């Protein structure tokens, strides 16, 4: 868990010339049920051309309200 907290608090570059945002629908087990959840991803490509995941958010559904 400390690795996740360190990743969430890492410093980001000041500039990402390319930013890609998308949502993936994934089946997730929740107790005895399997349900679809939307995983929102923000991917940045820095000035050196390296791809970096900037953030991941999980919601119950995908929709314009989140964006």
Automatic annotation (TrEMBL):
<protein>
    <recommendedName>
        <fullName>Mutator family transposase</fullName>
    </recommendedName>
</protein>
<comment type="function">
    <text>Required for the transposition of the insertion element.</text>
</comment>
<keyword id="KW-0238">DNA-binding</keyword>
<dbReference type="Pfam" id="PF00872">
    <property type="entry name" value="Transposase_mut"/>
</dbReference>
<dbReference type="InterPro" id="IPR001207">
    <property type="entry name" value="Transposase_mutator"/>
</dbReference>
<dbReference type="GO" id="GO:0003677">
    <property type="term" value="F:DNA binding"/>
</dbReference>
<keyword id="KW-0815">Transposition</keyword>
<comment type="similarity">
    <text>Belongs to the transposase mutator family.</text>
</comment>
<dbReference type="GO" id="GO:0004803">
    <property type="term" value="F:transposase activity"/>
</dbReference>
<keyword id="KW-0233">DNA recombination</keyword>
<keyword id="KW-0814">Transposable element</keyword>
<dbReference type="GO" id="GO:0006313">
    <property type="term" value="P:DNA transposition"/>
</dbReference>
């Amino acid at each position: 868990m400390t690795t996740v907290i360190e990743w969430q608090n890492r410093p980001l570059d000041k500039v990402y010339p390319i930013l890609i945002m998308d949502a993936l629908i994934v089946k997730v087990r929740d107790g005895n049920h399997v349900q679809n959840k939307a995983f929102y991803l923000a991917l940045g490509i820095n000035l050196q051309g390296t791809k970096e995941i900037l953030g991941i958010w999980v919601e119950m559904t995908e929709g314009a309200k989140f964006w």
